[in-house]
Design a protein that fits this description.
329 residues, alpha/beta, D-Maltodextrin-Binding Protein, domain 2, 11 helices
Length: 329
Amino acid sequence: MSAITRRELLRTAGAGMAAAGMLPTLRAAAQVKTRLSIATGGTGGVYYPLGGGIAAMISKYAPGVEATAEATAASVDNLKLLHAGKVALGLSGADIAWEAQQGQLKGLKDKVAVRTLASIYLNYMHVVTLETTGIRSVADLKGKRVSMGAPGSGTEVKGLRVLEAYGLSPKDLRSQDRLSVTESVGAIKDQKIDAFFWNGGLPTAAILDLAATPGIRMKLIPHGEIVPKLVEKYGSFYVVGPIPKDMYKGVESDVPAVAEAHALMAHERMEEPLAYQITKILLEHTPELVAVHSAAKELTLKGAVSGSAVPFHPGAVRYYKEKGIVIPA
């Protein structure tokens, strides 16, 4: 064998060994995923299962992306986490998102550069009591033990606004508890509170549980009449949304309630292609989300661009333009 041939063989062998040495590195690179967290809410509400469904869809359909849902106190906390860069996505009500964008979020001086990807469904304020308490209106809560919602939740913010619209404040209550919906259900069963506020989609699992409890007759207090007051003071994202009869056991007629759109939000720093991809997944695989929670039945192309109080992310805008959907000014 000539010297030239031996040299060529050595070069070939060396290249082969180098390539073999690189294989684990290449495999590792191929396995690297973009990991993102979705801030949701408490386990007894709608945000948590819905967020879990969204995370599963993103992980399934977005190549190289792995998403997980994180339990939180809900809207207010979610936007703080989004601002801090601790999560990539968060669920929030339009009212809380607007406050965050304006720099008016309680406990946060900064303005949050929050952007909407898609409005998913309406949240309805539930003012929950038992038939035995004698409470028939929000005004009847005066002197009662009431949970206004967990700290850091949109329920607490909105509940206090509803209370205010009826001329009441926490000082007018016998006690103000700050419980999650699951904790509130437990407390009212144990007769530790007389009523509680909960802002959630339909139906909410914890309230379904309360309504189905033997020996208990749950009552929902109507309060849709104060929507004009709320709109005048806080903005047009509040609407009257009747909670349909038979949604919960024992509720025999529609209950007019305050409602507002709830959406999947991102920070403006999210890359445009990723925001586009997530929006596309939500709107093109909606039945899979409906299978997780029926509130997602409200998610449609036209509905996805309605009810938002903050601008849409450019990635979402690109998707809607491709589908011929005009985002309301």
